[in-house]
Amino acid sequence: MKFHLSGLFFSVWVYTNFVRPKAQNTMKMPKILKDLSQESICYLESSVNYTLLYMRDGKSIVSGYNIKVFEQIFAKNEFIKINRSKIVNVTFIQKTFTSNRTCTVHLANGDRITIARRRLTTLKESHPAIF
Questions:
Q1: Which residues does UniProt call coiled coil (predicted)?
Q2: Residue 21 pLDDT
């Protein structure tokens, strides 16, 4: 018995089963964010393949996801990447100081984070209110 598929039917079958691109938004949401509100996160710090979340009340929580995942999840206008290893919640920034070609951000919880030299100009353009 010979099985024959028409040209159009065969093309559609091949596309739907083999060629069709997969869904782009298949990134998993970290379980740790289901229990926390984004407003309570002061800043995030990467540590190899883990991320430390520093909270408003001074606690720190370790997540098994790297910082790149959190960078994609959080809104660009609420969280900014200060340097290679830290993402800061903009609402917790109190002051910025510049001395000897280094710029430092002072946070509401008392921590100080140095802004990367190469990120400084783009941050001044995108978030002029913090400078």
A1: none
A2: 60
CATH number, position 109: 2.40.50.1020
From the number of C-beta atoms within 10 Å of its C-beta (0-12, 13-18, 19+), residue 58 rates as exposed
Q: Decide if pLDDT at 43 tops 80.
A: yes
- The strand pairing partners of 60, in sequence order, are 54
Residues in Cβ contact with 54 at an 8 Å cutoff, skipping those fewer than 6 apart:
41, 42, 43, 44, 45, 60, 109, 111
In a domain, 4, yes or no: no
Query: What H or E segment, with its residue span, contains residue 7?
Result: helix 7-14
Q: Which tokens go with 7?
A: 């040209």
Q: Could you give the 3-state DSSP secondary structure of residue 1?
A: coil
